[in-house]
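Morning F.,

Quick status update on the modeling queue. The single chain you submitted on Monday has been processed. Sequence for confirmation:
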Amino acid sequence: MLDILACPKCHAPFAQKDNTLSCTRCTLTFPVCDGIPDFRPAAFASRFAAAQFAEGEHHAEAWTKLKTGYLPWVKSIPDYCDWLESFYRTGFSAFGFPTAWLRDKAVLEVGSGPLGLLACFPHGVGVAVDPLMPSFVSYMREHWQPSPLRIAALGEELPMRDGTFDAAVAINCLDHTLEPDRILTAVVRALKPGGYFFLMNNVKSRPGVALSRIGEKLGIQRLTEVFHPHAFTQKSLTDACAAAGLEVVRNCRIKISESAEITACYGWKGALRKSVENECALWILARKP
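Structure tokens below.
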């Protein structure tokens, strides 16, 4: 653990004593609880706190009550794990990567959620980061393996040593955060030169993003989603990757039509908004030069 982690403030290495990690340079200390190093700030910004609270409830209901949204064929927790694995496999197969490619790689997963890609694919050294990680312990411990190492931290302040990872993944994560540009910069810092970044996020049309930004600025809830402080177009997301120092190698845009049962729940206003947003899943393969 100590050969991977670094102080989120000054990036110096840690010394460990009992259940405490101490920065060897700036002397900040961080607890290790239930085997999870905790690097979170004492308090979250209010908008991020609201998003995280909603996200925490969503995960708990999925894993304890099997409320998995529009997945009618998921009937058990093993079914849910299988579905997640197939979902993660989509991005790798789109770019021609076998999932076994990670087998001997050091891999960082940002915004892993309760399970995450690294729990589904063989890998070498693995670290999964999520600010909600401590809240998952009570219902996820039985599903976790010794690797990846799970830590509680913000993606904007990744407690990782520079140039450590062969690959990084961030699946359906960046729009849940307050400062996605800082997260991308932190991922680039943690990657080795030539390291690959597998990124997936939903993207919208330019009018759809504009509606979300107006809703966020004016506090109009029907134009926002509590989980998502940010919205991206395909161009704004690829531009953000480039600005962080990543070379965008390929991308894959996926649009799945919704059933009549789902669309009937929207009403005409909701249907109009969905049409304007034209939301799709965008997978990006990027590389650190």
